[in-house]
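2024-03-11 09:14:02 DEBUG pipeline.ingest accepted 1 chain
2024-03-11 09:14:02 DEBUG pipeline.ingest length=341
2024-03-11 09:14:03 DEBUG pipeline.predict start
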Amino acid sequence: MKAARLHEYDQPLRLEQVQEPEIIDPTDVIVKIGGAGVCRTDLHLIEGVWANTLGTELPYIIGHENAGWVHEVGSSVSNFKVGDAVIVHPVMSCGLCLSCRSGEDMHCENLKFPGLTVDGGYAEYLKTSERALIPLAENVQPEDVAPLADAGITAYRAVRKAAPLAKPGTSVLMIGMGGLGHIGVQLMRELGNADIIALDVDKQRLNMAMDLGADYAVQANNQMISEVRNLTKGQGVDIIIDLVGTDKTHADSMQMMRKGGYYFVVGYGGTVKIPSLDIINNEFNIIGNLVGNYNDLYELMQIHARGKVKLHSTKYSLDDANNVLNMLDKGQINGRAVLVP
């Protein structure tokens, strides 16, 4: 099969022919990829940011936002049959550890993570497990929803945590209106009741955020802190969901959040630096957010089926993987990019 593999860090992926994945465990499922989302984490993987953390042996196939059709099943698979359209939760979890039993698949003690620790979906076929699959609603095409498998549930997990705090009369600032942000705005509009302020450097993405339900749009510049505080009568926002996660967004957020506010960190790459006295004096709540669990993806797909979440995406050939990653790195992707084998 054709696949895009990472052979060396800080080098382009290599498009090449490799052996198709094979059923080994009774719960294994081979999925024919209909769409593989392109994520900023893929850039970080190529840059080697995860090298010491994961220790994954090179070369391997990246791609962790996947949807497609069941192609082959293991002997004990009973809930899916060949031809079923599915979206794939990012991890293959054991189902036996305490994290799995509490529903937090992403903290599974024995997880395999296609695209990070084992071969992923920048290919024609992907091996996963029955536990990771969610059936798609009728008439939903895999290439149209693949990014919801990671970008979608990452945004959903953060918004789900923040929504009970987003009461009428409160305000929520969402930083970064790209692939996660445009989903997050829709979810906050659906699940919360706060005024939504969208923040981004790009006017086109801000316009899209307003179309999708944001109440205010603020362009990131030297005046943005005062503009955000003016929108909140000088008090600062109650909730910030930072989907970017740079040193600057961390520092700026501390100046835009009101006392007792909640700072949900989703994007990563920077370092949160704040004196402990400031945390105590302002009673800031700083909360980390990983990608969502299986139930988060199930719930998100229910919301999508009701037409409450629209995914803005552009399709590209798998052959264009390196060009698309380069465009993402340069901020030239509006919404989400999907590779179609």
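2024-03-11 09:14:41 DEBUG pipeline.report The chain has two domains: 2-150+292-340, 153-288.
2024-03-11 09:14:41 DEBUG pipeline.predict end
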